[in-house]
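FAQ: What does a multi-protein file look like?

Like this. Sequence, then tokens, then the next protein.
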Amino acid sequence: MAEIKTKQTDADVGEFIMSFADTEQKQKDSFALLRIMQDVTGYEPKMWGPSIIGFGKYHYKSERSSQEGDMPLVGFSPRKAAFSQIGRAHV
């Protein structure tokens, strides 16, 4: 089975935003999203993999395969074309 690449890291979120967000506006928007998501979730932002900023985490296990791991509850990445959001659906 392939190793899961999206894992929580100790990388600095602020440094990531300043180096990855390619415009001043995207940097401002990233820090605004950071504050909003932190206020709403109550979790500190953490880097997940090389380019996802996540808040909180949950453990998943696939019923169809033996794959399992941890993922952020919600998160975003300041991609070049647009922001990408992630989030766990509640069932």
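And here is the next protein:
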Amino acid sequence: MSLFCIESLFEYMKNLAPFIFEITIESMKFFEKFFGYPFVWNKYDQIFAHEYKWGAMENAGIVTFNDLYIWKEKVSTEKMLMLANTISHELAHHWFGNLVTMKWWD
């Protein structure tokens, strides 16, 4: 599992990384237990992209986030919970949407 961001945000990412890893690991454990099915891809990376148009987007084995989630100052608990929710939500798509898709979806 890896995190990526632009170099100018690296110092701020270092402060946020333990939280991101904790939420990601706990969410992955939850989903694997809940669905009774292990994470299927051999890697999971999270990229915080500069000037990314969306809040976040899952792709098989990788999630892209808007780097506005990398704060340069101390933020409220509400913002931290919003990030935790986004991390968990995007990871959930690895079971719903990437692994399991409706029959009618062509």
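Q: Is there any per-entry metadata?
A: Some entries carry free-text notes. For the entry above: The mean pLDDT is 91.
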